[in-house]
Amino acid sequence: MKSWFNKGEHWIWLSASTVSISLILVFGLLGMIGYKGLSHFWPHAVYQVEVQHTDGTTESIVGELHDSKMKDVEEVSAPNGHVEVPQYLFKVGNRDVYGIDFRWVSSTDIVGGIKNLEDNVVVIERYEYGNVYGHLAKITVNGQTETDAQKAMALLEQQVALGNQLISDIRYIEKIEIGAINYKIEGLRLEEKKLRSENLFTPDEALRLERERAEYQKQFEVFQTQTDALYKQTRTLGEVTMQIAGGKQLNVPVKNIVHFWQPNNMSLPQEIGFFFNAMGNFLMDDPREANTEGGVFPAIIGTVTMVMLMALFVTPMGVIAAIYMSEYAKEGAVLKMVRISINNLAGVPSIVFGIFGLGFFVYILGSSIDELFYSYALPSPTFGTPGLLWASLTMALLTLPVVIVSTQEGLSRVPRALREGGLALGATKSETIMRIVLPMTTPAIMTGLILAIARAAGEVAPLMLVGVVKLAPELPVDMVSPFVHLDRKFMHLGFHIYDVGFQSPNVEASQPLVFATSLLLVLIILSLNLGAIMIRNRLREKYKSLEH
């Protein structure tokens, strides 16, 4: 045993066990997030329970079983006076009737146990007030009522499909067509203010602006007429009467229905189809109900756009700084101090970078830009307010030390003989660096960029100060010139998780969405990293032969 310790083999086993435990914890965490996130999209069975109250009355509860836990209650007959009994969390929906989505029920209050409802139970997802759980009693369309279950279900499916198409058309016109016109009209208003501030507002310019404004107004009225007609059609879609728990009836306008399903009737292929359709809606829809329902499409666009802009900013800054310190700067106290500062910068809390970004980029640099180039728009700020540009620059500063250190390591691995060979052939030092040294360093640069992307995509605290908002009315990227709007605020998946998980008034309803969004954020980071890793590996293979 003593010789075994003297050989140091115990350190090998200790390191291996530590790595194994770390991997188990990482994959366990990813597995938990994946399971809870993906289960959010799977159709859940609907149950019915009879609850007996202390006054002897009973109440019927219909909903999805979401969670269970043990609760310590007093019990005289128990040895220690306490006993643990199961508690069940049901999603009862019908928020406009009950006021809450979820309800805890003790197993001691349940009469006859938990049982499935019959197959014809219907779940309706609405644009507001949560889900509806019950039975389809009738549907009324254009004054005609259908009470036959099969015919009513077929008619409801037809009307909901028509309603979804109408809502989709309305959103396209309002967001794309009318949004573009409003942007152009606002541009004309700012152009007029600019001309007036420069004393260039002549009668000809006034006539031109008025002509263009009238043209845009005419287009706006055409689109407004189209949306009014579509809204009128949504009011003719009809109304559904649902028989909910307790013998109550609830009328639901078809225009308020996102979609509906019968979870207890579904076969496995239907459940799989529902699963992928729910995931598609989650990825492509806008958030609803204070971000606790709907999708995360704006947050996806905002996250990816910010990370890509950050990569464009941080890569040249980090590479240039590393080349100067490694190839040009002379060794001395100043260079040593700079390197120590860069290493210390990597340990600064991220919120400090957010405060710096707010103070320097927004209040100083942004306000100066507004005064120099957008003074005509003041007091409404253009760049003197948090936005996409400042968030990207703040994240670039946050990840700059990683890129610098990684690039320096790559530069130090390039053989000195290659530098001397380039100089011997008549190339200047800058040509040698640009054509020989820097290409061979690109794998190390990509490594630093991978780490930078992973860090920036998951940060939340600094972004809250420099551009991220709970709900952005416009995307930072659209089809209107200049296509990428650096002055706009944006949504971010990390902040979306924080907002839904900790700021939502309906905690139970938001928990599944937190795991689903967390899983999506992890997958986006992995996708960006895998793309960078593939590029790095190709570059490494390309320049491997030159290192020997």
What would you say about this model in short?
The protein has helices at residues 2-7, 9-39, 95-98, 149-197, 203-234, 268-284, 297-328, 333-345, 350-373, 388-413, 416-424, 429-458, 463-466, 493-502, 507-543; strands at 46-52, 58-74, 82-91, 102-106, 110-116, 122-126, 131-141, 144-146, 239-243, 249-253, 257-261, 287-288, 293-294. It has 548 residues and is an alpha+beta fold.
Write up what this structure looks like:
With 548 residues, this protein is of the alpha+beta class. It has three domains: 46-118; 139-274; 308-547, Orthogonal Bundle (MetI-like fold), CATH 1.10.3720.10. It has helices at residues 2-7, 9-39, 95-98, 149-197, 203-234, 268-284, 297-328, 333-345, 350-373, 388-413, 416-424, 429-458, 463-466, 493-502, 507-543; strands spanning 46-52, 58-74, 82-91, 102-106, 110-116, 122-126, 131-141, 144-146, 239-243, 249-253, 257-261, 287-288, 293-294. Strands 6, 7, 8, 9, 10 and 11 form a six-stranded antiparallel β-sheet that branches. A five-stranded antiparallel β-sheet has the order 4-3-2-1-5, with no helix packed on it. Strands 12-13 form a two-stranded antiparallel ribbon. A hairpin with a 4-residue loop joins strand 12 (287-288) and strand 13. The longest helix is centred in the N-terminal third of the chain and has 49 residues, at 149-197. It is flat, with a radius of gyration of 31 Å. The two termini are 43 Å apart.
> Can you give the mean pLDDT?
85
Strand content: 15-25%
Protein structure class: alpha+beta
| CA-based shape | flat
Helix content: 55-70%
